[in-house]
Specification:
This protein has 311 residues and is α+β, with helices and mostly antiparallel strands. It has two domains: 228 residues; 82 residues, Immunoglobulin-like (Sandwich), CATH 2.60.40.1120. Helices cover 58% and strands 14% of the residues. The longest helix is centred in the middle third of the chain and has 54 residues.
Length: 311
C-alpha cells in the first residue's frame, strides 16, 4: 500500500494546492522568467489535477458500499446459521444413536458449526458444501415421518446461493476499494509533489528575501487554510553543521505508522496529537536517529535534525 506523503488532511491538501497555484498564477511572469515551464496552461493543468484528485471518492464514500454489503452479509449468514441449527435437529432426530449421530454430524460439516455461528465465511463455505451433499445423500432418511420438511433442501440451497452472491459482491467491492484507495493516495501524492516542486522554486527565486520566500512554504499555506489544525512537528533535515539540506529523509512515528519524507530543501512535517512521541529519521547513507518529542495541544513543534553520514 502506498503511503501518503502529506501530513495534513485531504481537504487541507486540496485547499493548500489551490491556494499555492493561485499564488503562482498571481506571480506567473516571475515564475516564467525563472523557468519557462510555468505557463498559464501549466498552472491550469495543475489546478485541474488537484480538482480531479478531490473528486475521486474518499474513504467515507468507498466504505459506505462495503458497510451496506456487510449488513447484507450478516443478514444472510445469520439466516444460514439458523437453518444449520434446524438441520442439526433433523439429523439428531433421524439418527438417535449417539455414536451414529456424531458421525453423521461430522459428515454434514458440523465440525465447522461454532465458526459458522460466528459468521466466519472461511467456515461457512466448506460447511455448506458438506451440508448440501449430506442433505442430498440422506434426503430419504431425513424426511421420513416428516422429520425434515420436504422444502428445506430448496430453502437451504437458496440461502447458500444468496450467501455466495453477497460474499462475491463483498470481496469484489473490497478489492475495488483497495484499488481506488491506492489510486486516490497516488493522485494526492502526485499533486503534493507538484506543488512542493513549485513552492521550492518560489523559495529559490527569493533567496535574498527570506520573508517573501516564506510565502512559498507548505506549512505557511497550511496555517492559512487551517489555522486551528492539530499539533505536530515540522522542520528540516540537515547535514552536519546545518548549512546544507538533506532531502529524502523518512521521518516515522512507529506507534501510529505515520511517515513523512523531507523534500528538496529538507523540509518535512508530521501531524501528531498532544503527547510524547518517538520519531525515527532514516536515509540511505546516513546514520538512523530516534528522537523523542513532546507535542503540545495546538502547537507545531519545530525540529531541525542534523544527519550524520555513515562512515
Amino acid at each position: 500500500m502506498t503511503k501518503t506523503k502529506y501530513a495534513c488532511s485531504q481537504a487541507s491538501l486540496y485547499a493548500i494546492c489551490i491556494l499555492a497555484w493561485q499564488i503562482c498564477r498571481d506571480n506567473q511572469a516571475a515564475f516564467f522568467a525563472f523557468d519557462a515551464q510555468y505557463t498559464e496552461g501549466y498552472i491550469d493543468d495543475n489546478v485541474a489535477a488537484v480538482k480531479a484528485a478531490e473528486t475521486m471518492p474518499d474513504a467515507k464514500a468507498r466504505q459506505e458500499e462495503l458497510s451496506l454489503l456487510s449488513i447484507e452479509y450478516d443478514k444472510v449468514a445469520n439466516l444460514l446459521a439458523a437453518q444449520a441449527k434446524y438441520l442439526r435437529s433433523y439429523i439428531e432426530r433421524a439418527y438417535t444413536d449417539k455414536a451414529v449421530q456424531k458421525i453423521m454430524l461430522q459428515s454434514a460439516g458440523f465440525d465447522y458449526f461454532s465458526k459458522v455461528q460466528n459468521l466466519d465465511d472461511k467456515a461457512i463455505t466448506p460447511f455448506m458444501s458438506s451440508a448440501l451433499k449430506f442433505i442430498a445423500d440422506k434426503a430419504a432418511v431425513l424426511t421420513t415421518d416428516g422429520r425434515m420438511p420436504t422444502d428445506f433442501a430448496a430453502k437451504f440451497n437458496a440461502t447458500d446461493a444468496a450467501f455466495d452472491d453477497v460474499l462475491a459482491q463483498y470481496n469484489a467491492t473490497q478489492s475495488a476499494t483497495k484499488i481506488k484507495t491506492e489510486e486516490k493516495i497516488k493522485a494526492n501524492n502526485d499533486i503534493y509533489d507538484r506543488v512542493q516542486a513549485m513552492l521550492y522554486d518560489g523559495r529559490f527565486m527569493h533567496l535574498e528575501n527570506p520573508a517573501l520566500a516564506q510565502v512559498y512554504n507548505f506549512n505557511t499555506l497550511w496555517d492559512q487554510v487551517e489555522p486551528t489544525k492539530n499539533a505536530g512537528v515540522s522542520g528540516k533535515t540537515l547535514a552536519v553543521g546545518g548549512k546544507k539540506s538533506v532531502p529524502k529523509v523518512t521521518v516515522t512515528e512507529p506507534l501510529t505508522g505515520k511517515t513523512a519524507v523531507s523534500d528538496k530543501d529538507g523540509s518535512y512535517s508530521l501531524l501528531l496529537t498532544e503527547g510524547k512521541w518517538l520519531l525515527t529519521f532514516t536515509a540511505d547513507g546516513y546514520v538512523s536517529q530516534t528522537i523523542e518529542v513532546t507535542i503540545q495541544k495546538g502547537v507545531t513543534k519545530r525540529l531541525y535534525v542534523e544527519m550524520v553520514k555513515v562512515v
